[in-house]
Structures are given as structure tokens and as C-alpha cells.
Amino acid sequence: MRVLVTGGAGFIGYNVTQRLLARGDSVLGIDILNDYYDVTLKEARLRKLREDGGNRYAFDKIDFSKMDDLQRALEGQTFDRIVHLGAQAGVRYSIENPHAYVQANLVGHVNMLEIARHRGVDHMVYASSSSVYGGNTKLPFAVEDRVDHPLSLYAATKKADELMSETYAHLYRLPLTGLRFFTVYGPWGRPDMMMWLFTDAILSGRPIKLFNGGEMWRDFTYIDDIVTGVVAALDNPPPDDGEPKAGGSLKPHRLYNIGNHRSEHLMKVVEILERECGREAQRELLPMQAGDVERTYADIDAIANDLGYAPTTTIEDGVPRFVRWYRDYHGV
To answer: What's the CATH superfamily of 2-330?
Structure first.
């Protein structure tokens, strides 16, 4: 099978591509390689993919939010399925730069739906986010819950992606699966995310910023578990049988949470990081940030029942693995 992976130089895109290559698939990766975070990290991921993938891996630098450029780049290329992970990420950055999210996450998503439709692909799996749950207070978050009150533009764009996908599943019977990721961390992670920021600050002797005074809970999900869920979803297109799917659709469109099914106190993670880094963190207590939420917690019954998804990595195992990778990558 040949798979088109958007956001192929990103954190999840890189790891999904590695898993697909390891099992013998071929991958065409595309990515804009923007400077939202350090481009050298993205280039390092790509170098490793080229080394590991050989002639079963190809990459093209392209902005998929520009339809003419996207169509030109894909001309003559064949692929059976799509994993659409490319997006403008980050809750807080969406407050500062809303237009980047409209372009990448809305226009770009429609473009990928059109590519999937006109190419007649077997299945497109796309990235949604736990952010769509917004200010919901019912825990754990389940895919059947209403998600009408996003707290950031990033969350609103991801909810819009789900709605547009439902429309394409209805109009064109296009098999689609949306995945709501919960706080992904692990090797080759993103420098703008908490695990990287805290590790960097602790090792450098700088204070870590603890919003809401550190009273935050997250469903921390290790990257290997995320990838297992993505690949399981990719291999199982939703049937067009008129039966209700996860998320409520009667069309060939499913929605799944991919989380660890554990809501961990932020300070527990800080303690593990301190132990692994060999020093105590300096702590700066700050109020809650705009657009942020106090708790996330994934109900994974739907994906467990449909696909047998069962995360295996606790933070006690996963956080040390990340710190070891971070030290090795930076030589510290």
C-alpha cells in the first residue's frame, strides 16, 4: 500500500511514517516546513526517514492549502490512502495569528478532502484534537459529547474539519476517520509543547511556567500508542452501511479519541522530569492562559471496541524515554 502523509515532517507524521515503512508500506510525505518551530528538527526527521525508507519513501515540500500547487505536486503520483496530519498547531498561537489557522486548517482540509474525493482513495484518516471539547466539564470526554463551545480558534477549526468531513462522507460516500488526539509526547516531539519546554528549562536551570498554579490535569499519550491508533484506524475504513458510527454519523465517517485513558496531575509529570533530569525545577506559578482548559481525559471505549486500541505506556515509562531521547538529540 502507498500512503500519502501530510505534515510528514511533523512529530506525529514522522512517527506514523516510520511505522508504515517498518511494516513494508510506501509513503509519500508532504509538508510546508514552516518556521512555527525549529525547521532543523523537521529536517532531521526527514533525513532519518530518507535513510530508513530508501526507495519506498518520497517527500515533497508543498503548501497543501494552495490547491494549484498541491495538484501540481501530486500529478503523476499514486496513493491508496491518506493520513492527513498537516495543520497549523498550537492553541495559544491561534490567538496571535488566526489567519494561519484559517488557511492551513480550513482551506487546507477542504483541499485534502477534494484530493481524496477526486482520486477515489480508499480512506482518509485526519487529525482532529481533544481541544474540540472546549469547556466541557463532564469527564472523561466521549466522542458522543456535544462540542459546540470551543475555547480557541484552533479548536474551532478542528471542529469545522469534522463537520466538513461529515459533509463529504454524505455527499460522496468518502470513507473518513477523524482522530481527536490527547496531549501527545515522546521522542522527536515538538519544542512548543510542555514536555520539551519543561525538560529544556530544568536542564538549563530556568524556571518552568506552571499555569493555573500547576493545577492542571492532562491525558498524556505516548507517541507509540498514538501511532498504533492511527495505523489501526487507517487499516479499517468505516463501512457505508447506514449504521451509527463512533461520533454518531450514519455515513462512512467515524470519530475517535486517541488518549491514554488516564488524567494525570501536571505536578506528577514535573516530579518525574526532575528525577530524570537530576535536578529540581524552579517553578513560576502563573494564572490560567486564555484558550486553555484545566482538565483533559479521554474516553477511549469507541476505538477500543471497534479497533482493539489499548494504550500501554504510562507516564512513568514514557517520560523517561522522552528525556533520554532529548539528552541524546542535544548531546546534554
So the answer is: NAD(P)-binding Rossmann-like Domain (3.40.50.720)
- Rg, the chain, Cα only: 19
In contact, 131 and 155? CB cutoff 8 Å: yes
**Catalytic residue, candidates 101, 133, 154, 297:** 154
pLDDT along the chain (332 residues), means of 10: 97 98 98 94 97 96 96 95 94 86 97 97 97 91 94 94 98 98 96 96 95 91 98 98 97 97 94 96 88 88 97 97 97 90
**Distance between CA atoms of residues 103 and 64, nearest Å:** 10
pTM of the model: 0.96
Burial of 311 (C-beta count, 10 Å sphere; 0-12/13-18/19+): buried
The verdict on whether 154 is a catalytic residue reads yes
Nearest to 10 by CA among 131, 129, 184: 184
Dig out the grid coordinates for 236 from the structure: 479499517
How many whole angstroms separate alpha carbon 300 and alpha carbon 219? 11
Per-residue pLDDT tens over the stretch 104-113: 999 999 999 9
